[in-house]
Each structure stands twice: as structure tokens, then as C-alpha cells.
Amino acid sequence: MTSPDHAASRFARVAAIAEAFVGTDAVEVRLTDGAFSCELTRRSPSPTAVSAPHVVTPTLPESPEDAPPLRRVVAPLVGVLRFVEPWPLVGARLAEEREIAVIEALGVRTPVLSGGAGRIHEVSVVDGQPVEYGQQLFVIVAE
Amino acid sequence: MLKKILIANRGEIALRVVRAARDLGIATVAVFSEADRDAAHVRAADEAVCIGPPMVARSYLHLPNIISAAVLTGADAIHPGYGFLAENARFAEICAEHDITFIGPKPAVIAAMGDKSSARRLMDEAGVPTTPGSGLLESFDAAYEAAARIGYPVLLKATAGGGGKGMRAVMHPGELETAFATAQAEAEASFRDGRLYLERLIAHPRHIEVQVFGDSHGRVVHLGERDCSVQKPSHQKLIEEAPAPLLAPSVRERLHRMAVTAAEAVGYTNAGTIEFLVSGDEVFFMEMNTRIQVEHPVTELVYDIDLVAEQIRVAAGEPLTWNERDVQPKAHAIEVRINAEDPTRGFAPAAGLLTQVRLPGGPGVRVDTHIGGGDLVPPYYDSMLAKILTVGATRGEALQRMRRALRETVIEGIPTTREILLEILDDPAFIAGAVPIDYLPQHQTLLASVAS
Fold this sequence. Notes:
A: about 140 residues; four-stranded antiparallel β-sheet; B: about 450 residues; alpha+beta; D-amino Acid Aminotransferase, Chain A, domain 1; eight-stranded antiparallel β-sheet; five-stranded parallel β-sheet; 22 strands; about 35% helix; globular
């Protein structure tokens, strides 16, 4: 059961699951397959959000622990992005959760939501641009 | 001619389609899941679009994102490869609704041949022999009556099935109830369709299939047969070769003729495969695969032809440029599947880091693969890593080259089927030829020698 080969293959399997996990938005993954089981939990805030471009600005505190959480808004599907009024420009304040754009695909418009209140920190796309799944559209600083 | 092809697949077949398209001067679009961002097919294609998270239901099976990617990139055709959406009639229909050429047969033909009970009825009507069997079984009682009428042993099969899922051999009436319940549950879980039928179990048959090709001008031709009898206990193919060894000329001729009859009966277009069970002089239609097959390169090597390029030409409306009188088998070819699986643990799939990969080469060797050293094999997808093919003037030469090719092959980091394949290639029963489909399950000693 615990031969070196077996342990190596188990390690490889966990490594593969971890690698795939990093690419998702999931916070936690639990997997059981016969005798094999593993559990992965992501530390908050998500590492992808922290590594978003232009994180350090004079208005943000130095210490990452004190930094206001940055939210990446990503495309939930493949389609053409359209901003909605009022246009989501850098610096715009969102008093509450609202629709900031839509993605048009095959004649269907899917709303893109801000995910809560905040200030638009980065606009990563232009109006009318084709976007792929998971593509970063906006970065929002929660306020 | 087509201008830009989106490939709705991953792995070696996605790469294979990119190559065929590029040889024809056609642009390509890859689609990929977040787990495949660095995959070979993504790097190879002219454009690439991320269509979803790693889980296939939300990426490689996600129709809206795939069609949307085709529309946005201006692709005028979609090649589905094999697996995933390749035999999904609805997908082919949606392509047509968006003026996208689906590289494959017509949706109605996919639907008719994909439903196994409907396919058997069509073949019965066309005069192609099928194994004595039942229609769809409404209940266990219906199965019990049908099995008694046909005579044991019988084989329970899922009408939506494939790859051995939902299939159970039943030797005695006492085993039927349990087998019926487990096959139904497995079919329901695998295909969301638990409907079953049963047929007579043919003892120790060979799996021999015939490659067919139809164009949109009403011509259907065959490109000979492939013997795919070396299968895992799960009925998945492990070794394929052409021509089929030790096959009586009269049986071979009958197989070819029946395959063309079957394809003509349904107005078949593009590449397809008719699978038969062969037992002595008896030949039975098993199923039709309405797509390019994993093992298509075996036929390509024997006939010196590019089947994927031909698929693209035919989909564009061009007539077939050859008939079976023009193309004669020129050699013997064999293919082995290197899978990320552990043969000593029931071929359990493995995933992880490929620490080292060295692939074979030299005269008479072809390798179709998407992997390289340092690649991570994700746990979400099919476990096939590479297809190694060899070709020779005779079967003996092809086998000898395969032994050499497998000994040159180094894949480290995760378990593979390489060693069990080498054992089979040295096994006198396999070398003699004409093994039946239960060859590998019956030869546990081969598995034992790998484990030691």
C-alpha cells in the first residue's frame, strides 16, 4: 500500500489536482476515489486576485494584510462584451451590486455583475470586444 | 473550400486536425479548458479560445461556448474529432443553424446510427446480419423473456452505449437480474440513458471493423478492415492492425461488401467505421461509429492516404478522388495505445507530471501524440497519451519494428501501458495472429509479468 511507487503516483495525482485547482475560482475541493481522498482549501484572498496587475498604488496600504480586497470580474462565457450605462470607467463608484456589462452570445445577453459595491480599479477590455471564458474584464476595489 | 476550421476537441486528435488543415492551407482555431491553457493543440493552432473550466461538461461539451467561439473567430467549419461532441446529432444540427459546416455525416444519420437499437433495425432492413437480439427492454421481465428466447449466454448492452459502459455478459438466467440492474445504472450514469437491449453472446469473436467513406455525390467506398481484438477487460481497444491477420479471403470480401451496403443504406457521408464481430465464417454487424476513429492512422499507413484531409475535402462538397480499385493495401500496419494507466491495477487511470518523455523514430515509425517531457497530465480527460504506429512490408516486420519502437520509448512520472504492450508483442498467441476479443482478459499471466 505504501510502496515508494505508490506514494509517488499518489503525490503526482495530488499535484495534478492542485495545479488544476489553481486555475479555477473554487475555494475548496474535496475528492474521494476509492481509498484515495484529498482536500484542498484556498487561502483568502485568492492568489490570482493578489497577483492582478497594478495592485500597488499610492492609495493602497503597503501591508498586504491591510489591503482592501481586489475583486476580479471575469467573463462567465464566450461572447462579445458590451458595457452598459452608466459606462464602467476607471474610478467609477458602485454604490451597490449592479450590472456593469453584458456578454452577447448567439443572440442571448448574459449580464456581468460587479459582485458588490466598490470602485472600478481597472477596466481590462473595451466595449464590443470578443472575450473568452475566464478572461479578466474589470478589477474592483471593495469599499 | 473551407477557410477556417474550429477544432472542438483536445489532445492528439486536435493536433492531428490542425496538421491536416495546415497541409490544405486552411486556418485553425483551437478551443481549450483552463486545464489545457499550455496544451500542444493550443500552441499549434492559429488562434485559441478558452471555453470553460476543466470539467468537460462546462468546456469540451459546452455547446454554446464552442459555437460562440466559432462565430466570433469566423470559423466556417467545425471538426469534432472523436469522443466529446463527435456523435452528438444536436451539435451537428446547431452547427448547420449557424451556417457552420460540421465535418462529419448528416445529423439524422448520426442520430439513427448512434441509437444502437435503431441501427440494428436499419441493418436488418438492409440485409446486413446482426447478432440475434431483442428490441429495447422495457423491464427486467422483458429481458428475462428475450434472453430465454435467444438462448444463453447473452450480452446486455446500453442503447446509448460505447466503450463497454453499460455492458454485461450473462451466462445463466440466475445472473440476469443483478446484471440488468447494474448495466442500467451504469448506462444511466454514463449516458443519462439507461435503456438496454440484449443480444446473443458470440463466443470468442474477433473485433474487425471496416473503414468507409461517403461523399455528398452519392459515392461510398471502403478502405479495408482493421483488427481491433486486443482490448482491455473494459472492451477498450489497446492494439489495432491492418490488414486483419489470418482472415479468409471470402470473409474479408464479405465484410467489405457489407460495410459498403450498410453505409449506402443510411446515405452515409464522410468518414465512418462499421464494427463487426467475426466468429469463424460468421459475421455480425455490431455498431457504426459516425466519426473518425482513434485508430484511423493504421488505415492511412496501409493505403498511404490522409483520412482527415479527405474528411475536410468531402465536407467542403468535393467528390472522393479515389475508389477502392485505386487503393490497394500496400503494407501491414499496427498501432498501440500508450495510456496513462496502471495495468496492474485494472488499468486505473493515472494523472500527474511527466518527468521524462522520449518518443521513438526511425524507419516505419509514426507517433501521434500531444505530450512532452515536463507536461502535466490533467485528471479530467481521456488517459491516452500517445499512439505509436509501425508499418512494414509484412506483419512480422511491422511487429518487429513495434518492439524496437516501444523499447526506444521512455515515459516517466506516471504508469503507462508500455510494458504490457511489450509483453503482448512477445506473446506467442498474439504473434500467431487472429486472437479473440477476450484474449487479454484471459491472459492474466501477461499482467502478472508486468507487475513482477
